[in-house]
Amino acid sequence: MTVLFSSILTSRSLGNFSFNVINKACACLKSSTVFRDSMETASDLTYIEVKDDNPLDLFREWQQEAKNCATIMPATFCLATVSKEGKVSARNLILRRLDEDGFVMMTDRRSRKSQNLSEVPSAAMCFLWAYKNDTGEHVARQVRIEGPVAEMKKEDYQELYDSEPLPCKIRSHICHQGKKVEWDELKASHDRVMQSVVDGKTDLPMPDHFVAYKLEPLTMEFYGQRDHLIADRVSFAKDSKTGAWNHHHLAA
Amino acid sequence: MTVLFSSILTSRSLGNFSFNVINKACACLKSSTVFRDSMETASDLTYIEVKDDNPLDLFREWQQEAKNCATIMPATFCLATVSKEGKVSARNLILRRLDEDGFVMMTDRRSRKSQNLSEVPSAAMCFLWAYKNDTGEHVARQVRIEGPVAEMKKEDYQELYDSEPLPCKIRSHICHQGKKVEWDELKASHDRVMQSVVDGKTDLPMPDHFVAYKLEPLTMEFYGQRDHLIADRVSFAKDSKTGAWNHHHLAA
């Protein structure tokens, strides 16, 4: 994925954040005074260190670091689903919760992604974090996750709905996600519901179409890159019999 | 997609950028002194204004604005593909060029995405930009694009390879993308190639497995949100007979 690399090289004024990254010694560059500090004439490899066999721990570590570095929307991921006819689609969602057994997301049951998941109950998630650390290094990290997706029981996500801010609850009530609308009609509908809230006539209970899913990871791949170095990748796969995770490096 | 919304609410210190966003008047809020400036008690709708029938123009406008606001990696998108068995996957790439007829991306022909595209030659792309504008508003915008994908002729992307920085060219030569590797072996391979470059023994010509694809958009969906307002969506579809685009708003 050379692609991330070039982008980082052209990114500007990313701020000043605190962050640690582990890299093996860059013998090739350090032995040369000619090819230092220039992407035109220098090159080396990033190295991802895996301290633990459980990729969820590495995921938490990377996401926390992204949060610490004030990365915008560190819980956002792209979700890819497919219809029974094999038509693929993708959109961004927010990770609502990370349980020991999987990644929790919420949506409208009438959406295309819910339709896809009812037909093909598996999906791919892709997180991306990019930031500059406190030593001035540009960092880009991606985590790709794949596995089966199952609808959760209402009692397991009721608290997620309950903690939604008001506009999100109103949206759940007025929007039939993905349906064609006239903006002015939707606005009028919004204002009516808003007025009902103001008048104390509704507390916007969780609608039946409000649904949560959990993706249980079977594979997780970590992509890490620092400055203009070539990226490293580490792929984790879950053993279907033992449930144990094993991992290896992949060429970028 | 309530999801983006919540994330924005919790994002921190996003900087201070210049930006313009168009919104219809918020009568509901402006008529109330009680429910102003608080996500706990206020709500309204974002409005996306479409000035032109060609969604590529709106895409360029949104991407340019993201660039102007120093958004990190504004050319990055998530690409979702599917295998002939219907297994979906997703990863981030960089938009290399936007032609009048489509979106250009590059990769390694031996990668999983290339394998997918050889089996199912269509894909979904998803761009996400999030930033704070110069009036302090948090903006989140997403563009989803779907359509057939075709491999390009070498002469149509040779210049893209030629303009790659050195580490990207080295990566193309040493990495069999997605293949299991021993990091130390890859590092040794890297250093050998780097030494050949230093010694003037190779100028790293474009490898045969370096390939570019173009996605021709048939549908494009724009998702826009400002602060804690409910998002607006506009969906464009291309008429297969006339090639003309038509559009309408969608519920978020």
UniProtKB/TrEMBL annotation, chains A, B:
SUPFAM superfamilies: FMN-binding split barrel
Gene3D superfamilies per record: Electron Transport, Fmn-binding Protein, Chain A
Domain Pyridoxamine 5'-phosphate oxidase N-terminal, first and last residues per copy: 74-166
One Gene Ontology term from the biological process aspect of the record: pyridoxine biosynthetic process
GO molecular function term, any single one: FMN binding
Classification via Pfam families: PNPOx_N
Annotated InterPro entries: Pyridox_Oxase (IPR000659), Pyridox_Oxase_N (IPR011576), Split_barrel_FMN-bd (IPR012349)
Transmembrane spans: none
Recorded superkingdom: Eukaryota
This protein's UniProt keywords: Flavoprotein, FMN, Oxidoreductase
Cofactor(s) the protein needs: FMN
UniProt EC number: 1.4.3.5
Pathways involved: Cofactor metabolism; pyridoxal 5'-phosphate salvage; pyridoxal 5'-phosphate from pyridoxine 5'-phosphate: step 1/1; Cofactor metabolism; pyridoxal 5'-phosphate salvage; pyridoxal 5'-phosphate from pyridoxamine 5'-phosphate: step 1/1
Task of the protein: Catalyzes the oxidation of either pyridoxine 5'-phosphate (PNP) or pyridoxamine 5'-phosphate (PMP) into pyridoxal 5'-phosphate (PLP).
Similarity annotation: Belongs to the pyridoxamine 5'-phosphate oxidase family.
Protein name per its UniProtKB record: pyridoxal 5'-phosphate synthase
Species assigned in the record: Neodiprion lecontei (Redheaded pine sawfly)
